[in-house]
């Protein structure tokens, strides 16, 4: 889709030489530029302390960002014109006068202003206050990266302070999972087809699984991760956001508040957990040494930056219930972890078996209807049905109807960050997390955080390269089901 190219913008990137800018934000802006989706007059202003001037910053971008931008081949002419869009302001956060310099530097630039804070959360409030002190908050949009706080209290403190400077409509809280193409497709599938809606409820759905599994360990982020853990890093945000999209009621329209109101209702309907429940419905694990893709890999506790006696979870599996008419009694199994057997993110909707099998026992053995929405890798949606095997007798087998996006759509998929950055520039808030959603998610996870912080129980060990602790499979077995990869 081409957007109007006449709406100018100034995109100011704090943390302009950071990891996120290098790997995600600048490559996404380059791709938007290359495909003609950015206004001609739009400018990008890197803000950092490290580089002295524009020439040095451009050098840094050319050296560090180019390899990520070139992932699918680089268009040299587009890269050169992309660099021409970039300005730089050297800024030390502790120096008020540097913000005045920033104001002067961007004063002549046209269009709306976006301030993207690709920095640690402890800098969000000081940066917003400093922007306000030079009047740069007025009419601007502010983008906040996760993690937004450490718990409900700290996230409220950030939101309160930022909320004094920017109105909620100016605040774009990023959850990059919401920008992924298949998540958009899930909305299209649910609300663009008459077929699924009647089945999308407790009468027909037996259980739902949402998995975000990673093969990688904590890489160079040991220190950050050890103070964070999988519950804060992945569940409070990405997994609960996916859950709310799967379970939400059809919104009145796709405008931002209609969608976010419905997601919020789901988050508020999550069955609260007390300490007794938590031991039954929440599994926390930590990886030990193991083998990943044929390579021996070390235990989490020996990774750089991690305390040797760390009790931080690198794996979480949860059984979640939604207390409303549509979903009462349907278990939602959520799972995420580092150093698992595969890199996969998927949503699995298991439908109930037929009420009576006229086709005999082979029909029951052959499986059930199931919808598998694969977010990554290889985005697909598969609807599993039973069909007769050719030949004698009535033997059924599970087959699937396949929506492989690359076969149907010639245009390439858009990366999550590209979509979200364009949404910020164009003022579309639907795919950003509203404050009340974030609060509801923190409220729900907080009893688990508290229980895990105080219990003498250790996280359950699992071998790196496996699918997590045995307790995760056992939890599903109690409900007569298993994770998708355990089928057959
Ligand atoms: C981030 C987490 O939000 O999401 C990381 O902080 C995680 O720990 C990443 O690796 C996963 O994102 P994706 O898009 O690679 O699945």
UniProtKB/TrEMBL annotation:
<feature type="domain" description="Glucose-6-phosphate dehydrogenase NAD-binding">
    <location>
        <begin position="12"/>
        <end position="185"/>
    </location>
</feature>
<dbReference type="InterPro" id="IPR036291">
    <property type="entry name" value="NAD(P)-bd_dom_sf"/>
</dbReference>
<comment type="pathway">
    <text>Carbohydrate degradation; pentose phosphate pathway; D-ribulose 5-phosphate from D-glucose 6-phosphate (oxidative stage): step 1/3.</text>
</comment>
<feature type="binding site">
    <location>
        <position position="49"/>
    </location>
    <ligand>
        <name>NADP(+)</name>
    </ligand>
</feature>
<keyword id="KW-0119">Carbohydrate metabolism</keyword>
<feature type="binding site">
    <location>
        <position position="214"/>
    </location>
    <ligand>
        <name>substrate</name>
    </ligand>
</feature>
<dbReference type="GO" id="GO:0050661">
    <property type="term" value="F:NADP binding"/>
</dbReference>
<dbReference type="InterPro" id="IPR019796">
    <property type="entry name" value="G6P_DH_AS"/>
</dbReference>
<dbReference type="GO" id="GO:0009051">
    <property type="term" value="P:pentose-phosphate shunt, oxidative branch"/>
</dbReference>
<feature type="active site" description="Proton acceptor">
    <location>
        <position position="238"/>
    </location>
</feature>
<feature type="domain" description="Glucose-6-phosphate dehydrogenase C-terminal">
    <location>
        <begin position="187"/>
        <end position="483"/>
    </location>
</feature>
<keyword id="KW-0560">Oxidoreductase</keyword>
<dbReference type="InterPro" id="IPR001282">
    <property type="entry name" value="G6P_DH"/>
</dbReference>
<keyword id="KW-0521">NADP</keyword>
<feature type="binding site">
    <location>
        <begin position="92"/>
        <end position="93"/>
    </location>
    <ligand>
        <name>NADP(+)</name>
    </ligand>
</feature>
<comment type="function">
    <text>Catalyzes the oxidation of glucose 6-phosphate to 6-phosphogluconolactone.</text>
</comment>
<feature type="binding site">
    <location>
        <position position="180"/>
    </location>
    <ligand>
        <name>substrate</name>
    </ligand>
</feature>
<dbReference type="Pfam" id="PF00479">
    <property type="entry name" value="G6PD_N"/>
</dbReference>
<dbReference type="GO" id="GO:0004345">
    <property type="term" value="F:glucose-6-phosphate dehydrogenase activity"/>
</dbReference>
<dbReference type="GO" id="GO:0005829">
    <property type="term" value="C:cytosol"/>
</dbReference>
<feature type="binding site">
    <location>
        <position position="233"/>
    </location>
    <ligand>
        <name>substrate</name>
    </ligand>
</feature>
<comment type="similarity">
    <text>Belongs to the glucose-6-phosphate dehydrogenase family.</text>
</comment>
<dbReference type="GO" id="GO:0006006">
    <property type="term" value="P:glucose metabolic process"/>
</dbReference>
<keyword id="KW-0313">Glucose metabolism</keyword>
<feature type="binding site">
    <location>
        <position position="146"/>
    </location>
    <ligand>
        <name>NADP(+)</name>
    </ligand>
</feature>
<dbReference type="InterPro" id="IPR022674">
    <property type="entry name" value="G6P_DH_NAD-bd"/>
</dbReference>
<feature type="binding site">
    <location>
        <position position="176"/>
    </location>
    <ligand>
        <name>substrate</name>
    </ligand>
</feature>
<dbReference type="InterPro" id="IPR022675">
    <property type="entry name" value="G6P_DH_C"/>
</dbReference>
<protein>
    <recommendedName>
        <fullName>Glucose-6-phosphate 1-dehydrogenase</fullName>
        <ecNumber>1.1.1.49</ecNumber>
    </recommendedName>
</protein>
<dbReference type="Pfam" id="PF02781">
    <property type="entry name" value="G6PD_C"/>
</dbReference>
<feature type="binding site">
    <location>
        <position position="338"/>
    </location>
    <ligand>
        <name>substrate</name>
    </ligand>
</feature>
């Amino acid at each position: 889709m081409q957007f109007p190219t006449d709406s100018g913008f100034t995109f100011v990137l704090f943390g302009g030489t950071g990891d996120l800018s290098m790997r995600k934000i600048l490559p996404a802006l380059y791709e938007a530029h290359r495909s003609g989706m950015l206004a001609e007059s739009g400018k990008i202003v890197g803000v950092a302390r490290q580089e002295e001037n524009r020439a040095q910053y451009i050098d840094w971008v050319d050296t560090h960002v180019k390899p990520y931008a070139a992932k699918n081949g680089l268009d040299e002419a587009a890269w050169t014109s992309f660099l021409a869009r970039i300005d730089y302001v050297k800024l030390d956060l502790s120096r008020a006068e540097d913000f005045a310099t920033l104001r002067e530097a961007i004063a002549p630039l046209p269009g709306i202003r976006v301030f993207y804070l690709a920095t640690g959360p402890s800098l969000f409030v000081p940066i917003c206050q400093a922007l306000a002190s030079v009047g740069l908050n007025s009419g601007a949009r502010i983008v906040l990266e996760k993690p937004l706080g450490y718990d409900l209290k700290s996230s409220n403190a950030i939101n309160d302070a930022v909320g004094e400077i920017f109105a909620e409509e100016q605040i774009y809280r990023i959850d990059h999972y919401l920008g992924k193409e298949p998540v958009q497709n899930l909305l299209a599938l649910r609300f663009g087809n008459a077929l699924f809606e009647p089945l999308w409820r407790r009468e027909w759905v037996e259980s739902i699984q949402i998995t975000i599994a990673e093969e990688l360990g904590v890489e160079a982020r040991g220190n950050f991760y050890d103070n964070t853990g999988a519950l804060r890093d992945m569940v409070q945000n990405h997994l609960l956001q996916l859950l709310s999209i799967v379970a939400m009621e059809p919104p009145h329209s796709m405008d931002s508040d209609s969608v976010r109101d419905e997601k919020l209702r789901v988050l508020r309907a999550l069955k609260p957990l007390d300490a007794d429940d938590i031991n039954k419905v929440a599994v926390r694990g930590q990886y030990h040494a193991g083998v990943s893709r044929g390579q021996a890999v070390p235990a989490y506790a020996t990774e750089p930056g991690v305390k040797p006696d760390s009790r931080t979870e690198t794996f979480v599996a949860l059984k979640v219930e939604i207390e409303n008419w549509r979903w009462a009694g349907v278990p939602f199994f959520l799972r995420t972890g580092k150093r698992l057997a595969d890199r996969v993110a998927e949503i699995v909707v298991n439908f109930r078996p037929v009420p009576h099998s006229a086709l005999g026992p082979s029909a029951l053995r052959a499986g059930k209807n199931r919808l598998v929405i694969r977010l990554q890798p290889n985005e697909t949606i598969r609807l599993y049905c039973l069909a007769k095997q050719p030949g004698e007798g009535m033997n059924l087998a599970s087959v699937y109807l396949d929506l492989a996006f690359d076969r149907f759509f010639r245009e390439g998929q858009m990366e999550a960050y590209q979509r979200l950055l364009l949404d910020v520039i164009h003022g579309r808030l639907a795919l950003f997390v509203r404050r009340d959603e974030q609060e509801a998610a923190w409220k729900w996870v907080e009893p688990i955080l508290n229980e895990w912080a105080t219990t003498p129980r250790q996280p359950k060990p699992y071998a790196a390269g496996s699918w997590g602790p045995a307790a995760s499979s056992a939890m599903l077995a109690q409900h007569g089901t298993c994770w998708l990869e355990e089928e057959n």
